[in-house]
């Protein structure tokens, strides 16, 4: 039977592994390669580029052949050409001590600043060369570094640079040890709703920023101040750029408040473009399944008044014409992609030269600098660690 393969990205060890087998093993529309690799990924040496499995998904042999490595090349921008980041404080990657892995692309880290003062931070990074991910990472970094200090936003920290060529590989934010709003054991406070609506008004109507992912999981509760803190701005839009249907912040706030009060997560599984405010606002009585510091009617009356104000005529125009609208340049094209590489030969045996995206092994053959993310496995598995390379 014909041999086929799937590339799997291991978020724990930050590397790609090719899973090879027969076509029988990989039925269409089923990501069987992820659980197959998960069985033994932690035990593979760093040199393994591919694993070969039988039709039962059992490991038969491994390959360390570099030609099996289909890891894409990510041309991270040198800080010297990222002009919009010129005023940011920076930290070298080697100075970050990993304390934990919080999720895909987010580490809990520690570093000492120039004065020897320790800082616990969340380090956010993107190791995948996918246009949408790269654009989202660029926008979030530029947005966070441009935001004025706000008591309900997790503070931005520093730009993280790799050590060899000072290329931008991520950023840090202050680490907040509190739990998120989706923790049902935490009594829900009326003041948090007031803070959230005021914050959304500030972002939308003052700065022209639409977060587009307002949700309980993205709202921390600061144990020191007992205030809510919004984070995860990677879906954010500024003005009309990247503005998506069904992701407006008013709708997000309504569902964000409905879910913690009722503990009803049904609507969280509905795609944003299929959700409307009326789905929950039309429910005559919200069944309270969480401890509140005020009667549920007080929450609903405040929310209804706020929604009516935000849905009034000219709301979109107010957003688009925000007086202190934040802007930043588009993601520059890294000069590395202008270097031509040989893609093969024509029928006439003439070389085919291309520029643009390439594999990491191709870039290495050209002598281009490649930052490598590979690291040892974490002992405790936390969350989903593997993703098929077909993911966004």
UniProtKB/TrEMBL annotation:
<dbReference type="GO" id="GO:0004674">
    <property type="term" value="F:protein serine/threonine kinase activity"/>
</dbReference>
<dbReference type="InterPro" id="IPR000719">
    <property type="entry name" value="Prot_kinase_dom"/>
</dbReference>
<keyword id="KW-0779">Telomere</keyword>
<keyword id="KW-0158">Chromosome</keyword>
<comment type="subunit">
    <text>Component of the EKC/KEOPS complex composed of at least BUD32, CGI121, GON7, KAE1 and PCC1; the whole complex dimerizes.</text>
</comment>
<protein>
    <recommendedName>
        <fullName>EKC/KEOPS complex subunit BUD32</fullName>
        <ecNumber>2.7.11.1</ecNumber>
    </recommendedName>
</protein>
<comment type="function">
    <text>Component of the EKC/KEOPS complex that is required for the formation of a threonylcarbamoyl group on adenosine at position 37 (t(6)A37) in tRNAs that read codons beginning with adenine. The complex is probably involved in the transfer of the threonylcarbamoyl moiety of threonylcarbamoyl-AMP (TC-AMP) to the N6 group of A37. BUD32 has ATPase activity in the context of the EKC/KEOPS complex and likely plays a supporting role to the catalytic subunit KAE1. The EKC/KEOPS complex also promotes both telomere uncapping and telomere elongation.</text>
</comment>
<feature type="domain" description="Protein kinase">
    <location>
        <begin position="96"/>
        <end position="392"/>
    </location>
</feature>
<dbReference type="InterPro" id="IPR011009">
    <property type="entry name" value="Kinase-like_dom_sf"/>
</dbReference>
<dbReference type="InterPro" id="IPR008266">
    <property type="entry name" value="Tyr_kinase_AS"/>
</dbReference>
<dbReference type="GO" id="GO:0005524">
    <property type="term" value="F:ATP binding"/>
</dbReference>
<dbReference type="GO" id="GO:0000781">
    <property type="term" value="C:chromosome, telomeric region"/>
</dbReference>
């Amino acid at each position: 039977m014909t041999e086929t393969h799937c590339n799997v990205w291991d978020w724990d060890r930050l590397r790609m592994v090719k899973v090879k087998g027969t076509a029988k093993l990989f039925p269409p529309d089923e990501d069987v390669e992820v659980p197959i690799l998960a069985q033994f990924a932690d035990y593979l040496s760093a040199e393994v580029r591919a694993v070969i499995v039988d039709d039962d998904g059992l490991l038969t042999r491994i390959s360390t052949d570099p030609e099996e490595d289909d890891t894409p090349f990510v041309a991270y921008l040198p800080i010297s050409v990222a002009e919009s980041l010129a005023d940011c404080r920076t930290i070298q990657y080697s100075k970050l001590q990993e304390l934990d892995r919080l999720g895909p692309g987010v580490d809990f880290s520690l570093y000492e600043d120039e004065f020897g003062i320790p800082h616990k931070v969340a380090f956010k990074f993107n190791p995948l060369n996918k246009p949408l991910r790269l654009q989202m990472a660029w926008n979030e970094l530029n947005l966070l570094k441009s935001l004025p200090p706000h008591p309900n936003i997790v503070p931005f920290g520093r730009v993280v640079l790799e050590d060899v060529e000072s290329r931008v590989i991520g950023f840090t934010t202050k680490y907040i040890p509190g739990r998120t709003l989706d923790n049902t054991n935490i009594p829900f406070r009326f003041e948090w709703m007031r803070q959230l609506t005021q914050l959304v008004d500030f972002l939308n109507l003052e700065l022209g920023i639409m977060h587009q992912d307002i949700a309980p999981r993205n709202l921390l509760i600061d144990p020191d101040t007992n205030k809510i803190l919004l984070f995860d701005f990677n879906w954010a839009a500024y003005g009309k750029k990247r503005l998506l249907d069904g992701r407006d912040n008013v709708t997000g706030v309504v569902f964000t408040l409905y879910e913690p009060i009722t503990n009803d997560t049904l609507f969280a599984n509905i795609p944003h473009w299929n959700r409307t405010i009326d789905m929950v606002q039309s429910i005559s009585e919200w069944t309270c399944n969480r401890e509140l510091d005020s009667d549920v009617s007080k929450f609903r009356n405040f929310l209804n008044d706020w929604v009516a104000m935000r849905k009034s005529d000219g709301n979109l125009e107010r957003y688009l014409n925000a007086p202190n609208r934040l802007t930043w340049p588009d993601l520059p094209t890294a000069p590395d992609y202008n270097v031509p590489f040989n893609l093969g030969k024509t029928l006439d045996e003439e070389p085919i030269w291309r520029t643009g995206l390439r594999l990491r092994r191709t870039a290495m053959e050209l002598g281009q600098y490649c930052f490598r993310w590979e690291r040892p496995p974490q002992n405790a598995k936390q969350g989903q660690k593997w993703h098929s390379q077909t993911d966004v």
